[in-house]
Structures are given as C-alpha cells and as structure tokens.
Design brief:
Blueprint: E1 2-11, E2 14-24, E3 29-33, H1 40-48, E4 55-60, E5 66-69, H2 74-78, H3 83-89, H4 101-110, H5 126-138, E6 144-148, H6 156-171, E7 175-179, H7 183-186, E8 191-194
Parallel strand pairs: 3-7, 3-8, 5-6, 6-7
Antiparallel strand pairs: 1-2, 1-4
The structure holds adenosine-5'-triphosphate.
Adenosine-5'-triphosphate binds near residues 12, 16, 34, 38 and 39.
C-alpha cells in the first residue's frame, strides 16, 4: 500500500533519517519507535508525503489516500474553530464525505467529545484537544492512517478507545502507522521500525 525504501532526510545539512526502509501493507499496524529526536515525526511526514526524501523513494499504491495526525498543530488554536467544525474539516486533503456523518457522530461519541462539539478548540484541555484531532484523522476515508504519538496526553480509558478504533480500521483493511514511546502501544503493531538516537 505504502513503502519507503532507503529514505534519507535531514534539516539544514544535519542528517536525521539514514536509509530507512519500511513496508506498510493493507490491514497492518506499523509502529515507529526511538528516543526523542531520533526522527519519528520526520519519517511519518515523509511517509505522508508532507516532506520529500533527499534520497531514496516513497511509493504509494495508486489511489492510496493518507490521513495524517501531526504531533504539533498550533495553527488550529489560532482559528475560531469549534470542536464539531474541526472534526468535520477532516484536516488533510479533504477526504471527509457527507455520507460519513453517522460514523463521525459515532467516533465523537466513542472518544467522549460529542458533548464538546460547540466548544472552541483553544478552550480545551490537552487530552480533550488530542481526542478531537484523533477524531479528525479517523473520520477521513483513507487507506493509510499516519498518527504521530496519537495517545500522548490521553488517560487509560481514552487510550483503550483509540486502540479499539485503530483495530477496527486495520480489520477493515486500512493500514495504521503510529509513533509511540509506550512499549505496550508499540506491542500492538505487527511490525516495528526502531530509529536510533541521534549522534551526540
Ligand atoms: N523543522 C525542523 N528544522 C530543523 N530541525 C528539525 C526540524 N524538525 C525536526 N528537526 C530535528 O530533527 C531531529 C528529529 O526530529 P523529530 O521531530 O523527527 O524526532 P522525534 O523522534 O519525532 O522526536 P520526539 O520523540 O521528541 O517527538 C531532531 O534533532 C530535531 O531537532
């Protein structure tokens, strides 16, 4: 569905990804692990097509749509968006369709954010905000969900709900690529890409 082959990436001449390869097949969950600064977010952005590799290749099967949950989304707080609007925007490349309205409601209910739908994004707690952004990613009709530390800041119950939702996506044939610092979470994956610590 999506693969990276010997991908290299760096910022201002500083190498971050060195010949990283990963295969993301339909119905699979891939975890990207590694210490702070090892390049997890960078790899996810390369896989999602937001960053172009300096060398190596990213291949996406024809028609493969990627939904991205970035780690940082400060731009959303600058807009006067409500929770309901934020989820409906479905953020990345506009994959949201009207026909998915009932599944949107269901995802919001399950993530415990349905009652927050009229609140402004900037008024939310960290965990509430994260659940809205997860919903925004998961309502998209995508073949691959690329999620950067999706459950960071979530309590145990919300984390379990997110894992259930991801399991449902995978069983329905979608692929999930997530980064995580939580060994229990990365153990859910069928395959793990471990990035090494940056050179001191
Ligand atoms: N826009 C940028 N400009 C310059 N350097 C950057 C940029 N984004 C990331 N970096 C650097 O690239 C390296 C990898 O960053 P990245 O965010 O991919 O790591 P990470 O593994 O996701 O870290 P964390 O676990 O802290 O989220 C770090 O050294 C970081 O300082």
């Amino acid at each position: 569905m999506l693969s990276a082959s010997e991908v290299c990436y760096g910022y201002a001449g500083v190498s971050v990804l060195r010949e990283v390869s990963v295969e993301v097949g339909a119905g699979s969950l891939v975890a990207v692990t590694g210490p702070n600064g090892s390049g997890k977010s960078t790899l996810l952005h390369v896989l999602a097509g937001v960053l172009q590799p300096k060398s190596g290749y990213v291949r996406r099967q024809a028609g493969c749509r990627v939904a991205l949950l970035p780690q940082r989304t400060p731009d959303i707080d600058a807009l006067p968006l409500t929770v309901g609007e934020c989820v409906r925007i479905g953020g990345f490349q506009g994959f949201f369709r009207r026909s998915t309205a009932s599944s949107t409601d269901s995802i919001m209910e399950r993530l415990g954010i349905a009652d927050l739908r009229r609140r402004r994004m900037r008024e939310l707690s960290g965990g509430q905000r994260q659940r809205v952004l997860i919903a925004q990613a998961l309502v998209q009709q995508a073949e691959v969900y690329v999620l950067d530390e999706p459950t960071v800041a979530l309590d145990a119950a919300s984390r379990a709900t997110v894992h259930e939702l991801l399991g449902e996506k995978v069983r329905a044939g979608a692929a999930v690529v997530l980064s995580s610092h939580d060994p229990e979470e990365s153990a859910l994956a069928g395959h793990t890409v471990h990035l090494r610590a940056p050179a001191a």
